[in-house]
TrEMBL record:
GO terms for biological process: release of sequestered calcium ion into cytosol by sarcoplasmic reticulum; striated muscle contraction. This is Ryanodine receptor-like isoform X1. GO terms for molecular function: ryanodine-sensitive calcium-release channel activity. The gene is LOC114339232. GO terms for cellular component: calcium channel complex; sarcolemma; sarcoplasmic reticulum membrane; smooth endoplasmic reticulum; Z disc. It comes from the Eukaryota. It comes from Diabrotica virgifera virgifera.
């Protein structure tokens, strides 16, 4: 989640040293949509054990498919 927030911040506040670099603008509506997705499935509200089990099962199924 922090990578997404950092990416959104860098789009809004590009480095001043980088002149001539293409600047893409993300609309406020799209930013709100991204943040609302994170709010819908909050990993912080899950108990830590459930989160660990969820991540481990996802990891196991991903490695079995390879």
């Amino acid at each position: 989640m922090s990578k997404v927030l950092f990416g959104l911040h860098m789009i809004d506040h590009p480095q001043q040293q980088q002149k001539g670099v293409y600047r893409s603008c993300v609309s406020t509506q799209r930013k709100r949509a991204v943040l609302s997705c994170f709010r819908q499935a909050s990993l912080h509200s899950l108990p830590s054990l459930s989160l660990i089990v969820l991540l481990l099962t996802g990891y196991k199924t991903e490695n079995k498919s390879r």
